[in-house]
Amino acid sequence: MCACRKAVLLDGGFSTQLVENVGEEVDGHPLWSARYLASHPKAVMQTHLDFLRAGAEVTITNTYQASIGGFKEHLGLSEEESLRLMRRAVELAKEAVDIYMKENPSCKVRPLIAGSVGPYGASLHDGSEYRGEYADTVSRQTLADWHRPRIETLVAAGVDLLALETIPAQKEAEVLVELIKDFPRVRAWISFSSKDYHQISHGELLRDVAHECWSRNSNQLVAVGVNCLNPKYVTSLFSRINEEGRPHIPLIVYPNSGEVYSPKTGWTDPDNVASVDSYVDEWLSLGVEYVGGCCRTNAEDIRRMRGHVDRWLKEGTFTGPMGIVSTNSSCITNSVGCH
């Protein structure tokens, strides 16, 4: 049997790289980068392609801030038009993958498309996804009803898996891992926003929430972890998740740059953070299997991460992205053979 080492590279902060392709600031709008699905679809496709060319093996759709209510209010779309725009997000990601594969005919494995499912709090436009207090008042049924149309649309449009991301509270996480049972053929990761070295944003301990989610739906979850947090928190957050005597959970991390974000002032303190790629070796040594970047990380950051991942993989072999693209137990060496 082949003992395979797994290290899968995700893409980076979509809005950060999108700025390079639209030539204007993306932050500050209630729909964030999702509005460009309607106004600049070619730029959205190009942003996916930028990350793929930088070495990403998984690209995440531009649907984090996409919702029927948001598209109705801020773009004047009907419900059907809103769902069509979400489907268009998947089509643009597929188009980028097609172009990349034509550019790299020797690739052994096609990059995957993960459908972004951001939290309910993102629709409130007040930074709630980094606090999670809405979980104290919004019912589980309301959360499920709000998430369902986007998940249903992304799955029907043909994403390879779902990215349930930046979830601030255990309650919403439980709703999501139960909800995807209605789509039994889809797989997903779930990742949380975090406020410190031990807790997710709402205050629950990550290690406890991770195991609760895993126990509820380990059949569909490919990984549990964190995203859009300060990278300095990651090692401590993950240190006790896979301690002896507990089920092993594959870990995923894609942090922001470490800068501080405020809904009023934007990102601050850029000069006092370490490059995100400088953490990659530490995380892989900790057992992280899926790594990438979130806000304020761009294609160049992913390119540097690619170098760390490739060096890591030279010490072992590789099973393929998310474990869902290989049809047998043999390993594919040196990532997907495209970089």
From TrEMBL:
Residue ranges of every copy of the Hcy-binding domain listed in the record: 1-309
Origin superkingdom: Eukaryota
Cofactor(s) the record lists: Zn(2+)
Keywords: Metal-binding, Methyltransferase, Transferase, Zinc
Gene3D superfamilies: Homocysteine-binding-like domain (3.20.20.330)
Cofactor note: Binds 1 zinc ion per subunit.
Pfam families named in the record: S-methyl_trans (PF02574)
UniProt cross-references to SUPFAM superfamilies, sorted A to Z: Homocysteine S-methyltransferase
PANTHER family listed in its UniProt record: HOMOCYSTEINE S-METHYLTRANSFERASE-LIKE ISOFORM 1, ZGC:172121
Protein name: Homocysteine S-methyltransferase-like isoform X2
Organism, scientific name: Thrips palmi (Melon thrips)
Gene that this polypeptide is encoded by: LOC117639286
